[in-house]
């Protein structure tokens, strides 16, 4: 299931964005950490299914919020496999079209280390995401190639600096 963590706007004291966080509570095993099941899904080649499910959950929740008058941008973490997928942008656009919502309600977060896996493809995907109205953030900046010089290559809207760099 998904939970939504508000992202505080320290300048205005409120929030207009939340981050979607996936959770898994197993019947016998109890809570299973995303740090455990996400790498397993990636290794098994099933991360695309997990990401598709997560995007479906987020966009359907946004539709419900929209129906009640609440407009929030939702940030979703995606895998490097999703970023290098040639259909990511078309899939996102189709999901938003289905609900009649604007893609500006979505922000995709990509970890710094995943961006470096295939920098050229990552930049192309980021540019395409931005062209359809989706914001893009670099997550966990400073955990891998923490040189600030790399930031000039990525046309992102937000950089989330990892606590270890601070």
Which structural class should the secondary elements be placed in?
Answer: alpha/beta
Q: How are the strands of the biggest sheet laid out side by side?
A: 1-2-5-6-7-8
Rounded radius of gyration (Å): 16 Å
Number of E strands: 8
Concise description?
The protein has 6 helices and 8 strands, in the order E-E-E-E-H-H-E-H-H-E-H-H-E-E. It has 166 residues and is an alpha/beta fold.
Task: Give your account of this protein's structure.
This protein has 166 residues and is of the alpha/beta class. Helix content is 40%, strand content 23%. It has six helices and eight strands. The strands form two sheets. A six-stranded mixed sheet has the order 1-2-5-6-7-8. A two-stranded antiparallel ribbon has the order 3-4. Strand 3 and strand 4 form a beta hairpin. Helix 2 packs parallel to helix 4. The longest helix has 21 residues. 23% of the residues are buried.
């Amino acid at each position: 299931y998904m939970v939504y963590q508000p992202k505080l706007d320290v300048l205005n004291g409120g929030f207009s964005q939340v981050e979607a966080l996936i959770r898994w509570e197993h019947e016998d095993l109890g809570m299973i950490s995303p740090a455990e099941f996400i790498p397993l899904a990636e290794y098994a080649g099933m991360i695309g299914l997990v990401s598709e499910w997560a995007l479906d959950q987020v966009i359907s929740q946004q539709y419900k919020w929209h129906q009640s008058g609440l407009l929030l941008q939702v940030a979703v973490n995606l895998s490097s496999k999703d970023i290098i997928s040639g259909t990511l942008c078309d899939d996102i656009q189709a999901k938003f079209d289905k609900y009649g919502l604007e893609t500006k309600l979505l922000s995709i977060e990509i970890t710094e280390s995943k961006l470096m896996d295939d920098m050229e493809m990552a930049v192309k995907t980021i540019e395409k995401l931005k062209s359809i109205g989706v914001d893009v953030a670099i997550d966990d900046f400073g955990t891998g190639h923490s040189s600030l010089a790399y930031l000039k290559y990525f046309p992102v809207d937000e950089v989330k600096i990892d606590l270890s760099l601070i």
